[in-house]
UniProtKB/TrEMBL annotation:
InterPro entries: PDCD5-like, PDCD5-like_sf. It comes from Neodothiora populina. Residues 14-23 have a biased composition (Low complexity). This is DNA-binding TFAR19-related protein. Residues 1-54, 113-142 are annotated as: Disordered. Belongs to the PDCD5 family. The lineage of its organism: Eukaryota, Fungi, Dikarya, Ascomycota, Pezizomycotina.
Length: 142
């Protein structure tokens, strides 16, 4: 069933790409007409629509709702999870729709991966101030 869904997504994407390249193929080859191609904004909108369509076919409604709430809080994390889901779907590793529990597992994996990348190392300098130095300063003023 997932293979049929993916095939539908591929067909829709191919039709979308053909439409973006110029729906009417009567033009021939071309040097004229600089502004006739789709703008960057239109390409971005089409890509986001294709992405949303694919995610709606991958996710169960409860999981899609959770991902939407995550997007409100931290958009970068939601995008990372979406990228991972799309990658899994394209590679054929998803056999059924992702439920909320599976989404939580993927969120945990993404979170662990980001924790490894975001480690902060604090190095304290030796030879700085200590308690004796403060006492020395206070006694000199008296």
């Amino acid at each position: 069933m997932a293979d049929a869904d993916l095939e539908e997504i591929r067909r829709a994407r191919m039709a979308q790409l053909r439409q973006q390249q110029g729906g009417s193929k009567s033009g021939g080859g071309g040097g004229g007409g600089g502004g006739e191609g789709p703008s960057d904004e239109q390409k971005q909108q089409a890509a986001s629509e294709a992405r949303a369509s694919m995610l709606s076919q991958i996710l169960e409604p409860a999981a899609a709702d959770r991902l939407g709430r995550i997007r409100l809080v931290k958009a970068s994390r939601a995008e990372d999870v979406e990228n991972r889901l799309i990658m899994l779907a394209r590679s054929g590793q998803l056999r059924q729709k992702v439920n909320e529990e599976q989404l939580k597992d993927i969120l945990g994996a993404v979170s662990d991966q980001q924790k490894e990348q975001e480690t902060v190392k604090v190095q304290r300098r030796k030879g700085g101030w200590d308690d004796d130095d403060l006492d020395d300063l206070l006694n000199e003023d008296i």
